[in-house]
Amino acid sequence: MDKKVRVRFAPSPTGPLHIGGVRTALYNYLFARQHGGDLIFRIEDTDSTRFVPGAEEYIIESFKWLGIQFDEGVSFGGDHGPYRQSERRDIYKKYVQVLLDNGKAYIAFDTPEELDAKRKEVENFQYDASTRLQMRNSLTLAPEEVTRLIEEGHQYVVRFRIEPGRDVEVDDLIRGKVVINSSILDDKVLYKSADELPTYHLANIVDDHLMEVTHVIRGEEWLPSAPLHVLLYEAFGWADTMPRFAHLPLLLKPIGNGKLSKRDGDKLGFPVFPLEWHDPKSGEVSSGYREKGYLPQAVVNFLALLGWNPGEAHDEMMTLEELVQYFDLSKCSKNGAKFDYVKAAWFNHQYLLQQPDEAWAPAYGKVLAEQGITASVSQMAEVVRMMKTKVIEYVDGQGNKKKRNISFASDLWPLTKFFFVAPEAFDLEDKFIKKNWKEGTADEMTRFSQRLAAVETWTVEGLKAEIDPWVEAEQLRPWNAWRVCLVGAGQGPDMYELAAFLGKEETLQRMKFAITQLG
RNA sequence: GGUCCCUUCGUCUAUCGGUUAGGACGAGAGAUUUUCAUUCUCUAAAGAGGAGUUCGACUCUCCUAGGGACUACCA
Questions:
Q1: Is the pLDDT of residue A64 over 90?
Q2: Arch. (CATH architecture) of A1-76+249-354
């Protein structure tokens, strides 16, 4: 019979959640949902020195925003707690003792300073079977001496006693069989007396076992220590219930070599964190996807496709539900994925277009407010309707001018300013103005404005019904010049729509102003 | 340095021994257009290199090269 699938996402609260961590969590979520299993949220805070206040709350809020729901864990409840490792001291102590008792681990008194000195002295020094008998530990010291040192309050660590010369197999769901010889592993520190806490490796294995985790889905950076974890399961006698492993490929820099870092985001102008983060120590602010104007569905969709894709089963636009349906761990790619932030923007564009126009109002309203403009929701929805398919210019990482679709509500401002603010001056060097404002244009516009003044129903339909025949009869092509008057540049929506939005009075006023300015 | 992982268009990827090597982002061209666009259509663009195995290799094996990760009393 199959055990219920249980997976976990276990970050350490040392800062904001990196976007790569978000993807790891997402894959865990998809896997859990797909198998009707549980997703556990565990906090791995065994390094008291690296604790950052607010990080845990940040992580929880991030997942809330993204729509990734946990079934149990810190802040979610559950009967396998506590889920914060710093609250599980007694549990770890007990299991460390088990290893000590069955000879799989030993106590070592070498201080960090002594080890540093040793590493300087001996090149490639490793604390393992070949060296441990030269060190100060319970293997070399008399039992009374060990007891005495502990009683005198000397700090010590517990090390895992690794037997050399054995090929350790890890059966990875993504990579297949990975074999590492135990001789290259060092006697890892499992527990430190200084803060009475275990290190990652011990806590991880004990918790995964006690929490009945069935699948460990994590980043590739853990692959080298996976054999160590296998050995630990064996040492505890838990080999038969050991979880299956799946090591995900890493997220790489968009340009150049190496893994994705915060600096890349700063340089190229995209966030590497889900939410904006204010560092409590340095006061530094790191941008977040949410604040940048990304929709959570877009972030999820984009991230899911970095390292996995549904093949021919489905196109790339997928809701969370569809992702759950099509996701397949065994179809994850093995190689690292460069972070394509341009495609991320494209996804956002797609999801933005899917939204009803009113849904843009909160974000767009904020943008307008920054410019000192207030508009009603219906006005904003109108503008969005007319302008959301436009394109905006931007500067890419290499400093090249490029164009891309409107991907964020904030993109709208430079393109929609004229809806709310009349042109104040006209650039005579502007190609569009030059081309469309010539001798006689002013007279033409004057005539046109007189006709417009007589329009009875100032709506798109009304304008069309009255002006179209008139333009036809007069043999005029007033559109571009009219655009110059109302917009001041060669952009904007259909002229009737613009005029209807501005209203008769504003329209005529702008025309009058343009005529006097341009002559 | 050592160990392990990886290698298909610029990017993300499909292919699970037999295909004109497919799609998406990006790029280019054309059509449409009341400006800029959108949209639509089309185009260019790839199996790192070398040995094998096989009737046949992008797919399996090995070597080389390149990339990545790990190598803490951090996770």
A1: yes
A2: 3-Layer(aba) Sandwich (3.40)
